[in-house]
Amino acid sequence: MKVTDNSILGLIYTLILAAIIALFIGITLNTFYPAPSYPTGPIVEYKKIEEPTKEELEEERRITEEHQGKIEKWSETSSVIIVVSATFLVALGLFLAGKLSILPNGILLGGFFTLFYGTALGFQSQNRYLIFGVTTAALIVVVSAGYLKFVDNPFVKKERK
What we know:
It contains 4 helices and no strands.
């Protein structure tokens, strides 16, 4: 039995491959560039009867803001890494389309899922110019790759009718 792009098994494989690719990219990022962890233990040890002092509350606020800054910086960097990876996957999927059956579809869809993940991280970073720039660059690369693949590929001889 030959599995084709249109078969149910081919569709299931494409979806599973896409999900595994997106998970792999996210897990790889978290393994080699983990998010900053929140300071462990109680930041301010509250006394059961007494209210925390102004100094204790100020220290807790300072630590929380410092951690939030680290998270935003991590989100910016992670977003760029993820969107670049997703763009590569989409370009690879387009390059392999027509050469292989089913596999390019999973790679394309995995790149699509990964692109959503990277964009969500970019929104978390609060740096709208960074995410705009990275997403614009990804759009240009993906549209260019699609154009070369489907519209005007100078490397492929066009068939004459």
